[in-house]
Amino acid sequence: MDRLEESDYLMALYRLYGSLLTEKESAAVRDYLGYDLSLGEIAKREGISRSAVLDAVRKGEGKLREIEGKLGLYAKLIQLKEAISSIEQVEDEKSRLALYQSLGKALTYGI
Question: Which of 2, 48, 60, 100 minimizes the number of CB atoms within 10 Å of its CB?
Answer without folding.
Answer: 2
